[in-house]
Amino acid sequence: MDSPRGDGVSVRCIETQAGLVIPLEPKDKETNTILFNGLTYKTLVSPHTGRIWLDRNIGAKRVATSSTDSSAYGGYYKFDEANVCPTGFSVPTEAEMTAETVGADVNNTTTAFTSFLKIPAAGSRIPNGVYDYVGFVVYMWTQTAVGFNGYYFYSSDIRAHFAISDTDYNFSVRCIKD
């Protein structure tokens, strides 16, 4: 019996709108702008994973111009408050953050800043309200919970890795597109 299906034929589907082809992946490094809480963020495409990220920490006035750029630190959030991303974005998982940092040769605060994410050393705000290691260390929440604690990205002048923290500490947040 003859089949109406062709052998050796492949089909590629693309999304269209009113006859216009809409690219499924952005072609430019800076792809879009998003107005959120009174600030305009741009989106960036990761050269490592192709995922889309906001160009700076939530609450930051600008993209970091150095690892100690205080206008780029953004807000400090407890783990339970860290889901502060705009609609369509979320706090990255530990695996998503690993792929863009330690999995992509980010091994200290210098390489955290020179990465495409331009991560500043914002330090943290500890539970008693005191700011700690500002300008020296990166503390950035992931959405990954470990029991009653949260997983975060840490970077100092000598190393970068992931660790577990009490959820009452206040760290920076960066958002990735869902």
Question: Can you tag this structure with a few keywords?
Answer:
29% strand; 178 residues; mainly beta; single chain; Fibrobacter succinogenes major paralogous domain-containing protein; three-stranded antiparallel beta sheet; disordered N terminus
Describe, in short, the structure shown.
This protein is mainly beta and about 180 residues long. About 5% of the residues lie in helices and about 30% in strands. It has one domain.
Please, could you describe this protein's structure?
With 178 residues, the chain is mostly beta strands. The chain has one domain. Helices cover 7% and strands 29% of the residues. It contains two helices and twelve strands; from the N terminus they run E-E-E-E-E-E-H-H-E-E-E-E-E-E. A three-stranded antiparallel β-sheet has the order 3-4-5, with no helix packed on it. A three-stranded antiparallel β-sheet has the order 9-10-11, covered by helices on one side. Strands 1-2 form a two-stranded antiparallel ribbon. The N and C termini lie far apart (46 Å). Residues 1-28 have low confidence and may be disordered.
